[in-house]
Design a protein that fits this description.
Mean pLDDT: 90
Shape: flat
Low-confidence stretches: none
Strand content: 15-25%
Largest sheet: 4 strands, mixed
Radius of gyration: 21 Å
Distance between the termini: 31 Å
Strand order of the largest sheet: 1-2-4-3
Helix content: 40-55%
Length: 171
């Protein structure tokens, strides 16, 4: 958490304001934290990846967490016996790559379709792991999308794609 202050504001005023409002700020912060969705731990079995795909976590006699795609199915193997919570960071990393692949497939079809249908043109697109925005459009009409966009409902994905395509006309 940070506090931005105008250049003309003396730091002593900001510190005094923080101290005077510490209790109310703490209450507001706790209220915001309690309203945020709680991160669910990964579980063995089927888990939702996107509006159109799932991924499966399977316990296997292996030593290292691995992920792969077989016949269009996203699969993660974890060592047995093990609790998926122990391997949360490794699973998250593989899921992020699955999301990137999934969103690339979605964008490949939707971008071309929307661009042709609504007469937009874009230079290229890329998928990142941005956490603060769903998409962006550079001044050179390169579109960028967060891989986490794949987790949203299809109509929201469509909206974000069209929104970014509009920027290719109106920067």
């Amino acid at each position: 958490l940070g506090l931005s202050i105008p250049v003309s504001c003396p730091e002593s005023y900001a510190v005094k304001w923080l101290n005077d409002n510490k209790e109310s700020l703490s209450l507001k912060l706790n209220r915001i934290r309690s309203a945020l969705p709680q991160k669910k731990p990964f579980q063995t079995g089927t888990n939702r990846l996107s509006y159109r795909s799932d991924f499966c976590i399977v316990k296997s006699p292996i030593k290292k967490v691995t992920g792969y795609i077989r016949s269009g199915n996203y699969i993660i193997h974890i060592p047995d016996p093990a609790d998926p919570a122990i391997h949360s960071d490794e699973i998250s990393s593989i899921v992020k790559e699955f999301l990137r692949l999934e969103l690339n497939e979605i964008l490949e079809a939707k971008l071309k379709n929307f661009a042709e249908k609504f007469k937009f043109s874009y230079k290229s697109y890329r998928v990142s792991s941005a956490r603060t925005r769903w998409g962006s459009c550079s001044g050179r009409n390169t579109l960028s999308f967060s891989c986490y966009l794949a987790r949203l409902p299809e109509e929201i994905i469509d909206y974000v794609i069209l929104h970014e395509l509009c920027h290719t006309v109106h920067h």
